[in-house]
Specification:
By secondary structure, the chain is mostly helical. The protein has one domain: Leucine-rich Repeat Variant (Alpha Horseshoe), CATH 1.25.10. The protein is built from four helices and no strands. α2 runs parallel beside α4 and α3 packs antiparallel against α4. This is Protein yibA. InterPro entries: ARM-like, ARM-type_fold.
């Protein structure tokens, strides 16, 4: 998905971030860290990752959200 990009891939990754299954949330956070998004979506993606990093009940998901946030910052 991150190679394909586009609005559909971003939308799917965001859906994964809200899933009950921690593995899907983890995958969603990872994809959001890798995928190219438009400038308009950048703040929204950052806010999703920030919320996950601070509040997710899974330590694995929190760690991935932190790493993905760092990836996004590195790209900018």
């Amino acid at each position: 998905l991150q190679l394909r990009g586009g609005q559909d891939a971003v939308r799917l990754a965001i859906e994964f971030c809200a899933d009950k299954n921690y593995i899907r949330r983890d995958i969603g956070a990872f994809i959001l860290g890798q995928i190219k998004v438009c400038k308009k979506c950048e703040d929204s993606v950052f806010n999703i990752l920030k919320k996950m990093a601070l509040n997710d009940k899974s330590a694995c998901v929190r760690a991935t959200a932190i790493e993905s946030t760092a990836q996004r910052c590195k790209k900018n």
